[in-house]
Amino acid sequence: MSPSKTRTHNEDIDEDVSSGDEEMVLAENQELMDTDEVNEDSADVEVEEAIVPADKIEIVSGSNSDPTCMTFCFKEEDHTLGNSLRHMIMKNPSVDYCGYSIPHPSEAKMNVHIQTTEQTNAVAALNKGFDDLTDLCQHVITSFKKELKSGNFEYSPEGKWASAA
Amino acid sequence: MLYDSVANSLRRVMIAEVPTIAIDMVEIETNTTVLADEFIAHRLGMIPIESTDVERIKYTRDCTCSQYCPECSVELTLHVKCTEDRTRDVTSRELVSSNPQFQPVLTDKNDSGILIVKLRKGHELSLKCIAKKGVAKEHAKWSPVSGVAFEYDPYNKLRHTHYWIEEDEKKEWPLSKNAALEAPPDPTAPFDYNAKPDRFYFSSETVGSLQPEEVVSMAMKTLLDKLAYVQMQLKEEVDTKKQDHTGWGY
Residues 182..221 of B with a Cβ closer than 8 Å to A: which? Predict the structure, then answer.
């Protein structure tokens, strides 16, 4: 019998990562299929472009004139970044409004819209949002590691969920 | 104080963005078993592989090699032939790893492993697997967790939930175990509309490739890396925009 190569995940029936996340998984696969097609019928230089997104972030055109009101388009990001970033930016008192959306489930794009007061501008507010979120994550990591080091924990008994009633 | 949005991000990263090692390509040399090649390849993909040291393995896309190499993959081989008259079970124990740090998961010495296929006399299975680093965003087989339960405010003090009831809320909606970790609400106290959730209860079960505490710290690290990367990209985009529009306001 001649050796046959099989990529396991092409044959797979996609399992739900979790409810509500399937769309994201689908979108990812869509992306993969697109890049695969490019791989097959174009030169090496173009393959490079297909794999590496040209712009991770794009300032959506039309919003250049007013620095206090801007929309940013994040490629290959989803609710994981979107919702927490939106929340952190909204905590900033000099921000009037911040919202995010994923316009289409099969396009791996996430838009964040920021409107600020005159004291600052949207880019600065977005940067502050990133800084605040980074600080928060850093704090969670350090306090989690500290607590873990104290050894004051136990694994829940096998097959029993700690939160189950 | 942790926010609900960030806690949910943590949950999402734990499920879909923590990297692990899983079998991604299978080269089948001999398969005279009752199962088709693809069927076995799929089963192999699902086997959890000890991934505590994933940091040492590169993503194949970041690697300098042309297809795969020891720096971005682990090779596992399997060769079993049934010569006896009784059924021969082929389990994940039979997979021989090229790298001792990345072995199929076993709970203890007596663990019989995960059943891949059963052989009758004369059946033979011989194959080579390439395990790669990946995240569950691409395929669920890379997910380190089988479940993450996430809860806050077990007494519903914040009234974020409205319970559907037939007669009695207390009878029909028993409290979760996490309620024992919080003070019960005072029924006479007025509703505190300024209160925000500040305690989040995570309960997680892993598939075995990582320990639950490792999943949490790796998830937070993944989230931080993502933030740093996106912020850097933002700086780049703003800089190029500034060059394009020299008269920009700031």
Answer: 201, 203, 205, 212-213, 216-217, 220-221
Range in A7-16, A120-129, B127-136 with the lowest mean pLDDT: A7-16
- When CB atoms are compared, the residue of B24, B37, B223 closest to A4 is B37
Contact B27 A4 (CB under 8 A): yes
For chain B, give the secondary structure using H, E and C: CCCHHHHHHHHHHHHHCCCEEEEEEEEEEEECCCCCHHHHHHHHHCCCECCCCHHHCCCHHHCCCCCCCCCCEEEEEEEEECCCCCCEEEEHHHCEECCCCCCECCCCCCCCCCEEEEECCCCEEEEEEEEEEECCCCCHHHCCEEEEEEEECCCCCCCCCCCCCCCCHHHHCCCCHHHHHCCCCCCCCCCCCCCCCCCEEEEEEECCCCCHHHHHHHHHHHHHHHHHHHHHHHHHHHHHHHHHCCCCCC
| A23/B contact by beta carbon, under 8 A | no
Q: Report the predicted TM-score, pTM, of the whole model to 2 decimal places.
A: 0.81
pLDDT score, position A127: 95
Q: Which residue of B has its CA nearest to A163?
A: B177
Mean of pLDDT values over B195-205 = 91
Residues of chain B found within 8 Å of residue A161, distances taken between Cβ atoms = 147, 149, 203, 205
State pLDDT tens for residues A106-125.
Answer: 999 999 999 999 999 999 99
Residue A86 contacts B, CB cutoff 8 Å: yes
- Domains in chain A: ranges and CATH: 5-46+144-163 (no CATH), 57-140 (3.30.1360.10)
